[in-house]
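[09:14] KT: can someone run the structure on this one? pasting the chain below
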Amino acid sequence: MLTGKTALVTGGARGIGAAIGRALAAQGAKVMLGDVLEDLAAETAREIGAGAASTRLDVTDDASWEAAVNAAIETHGGFDILVNNAGVEITSLVLRVEAEDIRRMCDVNVVGPLLGMKHAFRAMGPGGAAGQGGAIVNIASVAATIAFPSIAGYSATKSAVDRMTRVAAMEAGKLGLNVRVNCLYPGLAATEMGLKLADDIVRLGLAESVEAAIGDVVAQTPLGRLADIADIADAAVFLASDQARFVTGAGLPVDGGMGM
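[09:31] RB: done, structure tokens below
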């Protein structure tokens, strides 16, 4: 499905990013994992095999983005797919929110993908270093579509990802860049970030136990379970592939119906 394609996945060292990297590679793509966790990203790339590689990427830094994109092009000879997956979630009730926490989430979750789209447009568009067009998949969250307590700041940043995706898709079309831009709304998965959220909900007095917190999420999900990282990875592969060749500016829920 993706033979001959080259993908850069941010936050690719672990969790959903690593799962997306594996799924892209399984479909024939050459994968570059970008992460500030350099050693773990390198280890994950070795596990994936199939020519996968890694590079340091601080998504909040313009120069780091430029270096990572160049590494993908130099290592694999192209750049067709960007998955903006890197993100942070800092739990807080609104009445206790800290300005620095909000700024941190904005830097990673909003500035990061916007810089990524900038550098992808420049590299993938006509006259760019890769220049063959491509696909961008931004990872938003079901938090962008529901009112879930304790994650106001995170929800705001993921709502921003949705809006940026649509504006970028329109611009790419108007400018003739031949780049599609879409996003996913994953539901809660049992990743390190997801389990920390459950712990935080208990700490804030919103649930009696981690099991109860997870049970509340499952109860709100028509399909009756948490998301599996493979569910999210497979959806990312679809949006990155030519099977979605006429899909742009869209948000695809992968949340078991929680956000409907």
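[09:33] KT: thanks! The chain is about 45% helix and 15% strand.
[09:34] RB: yep, looked fine to me
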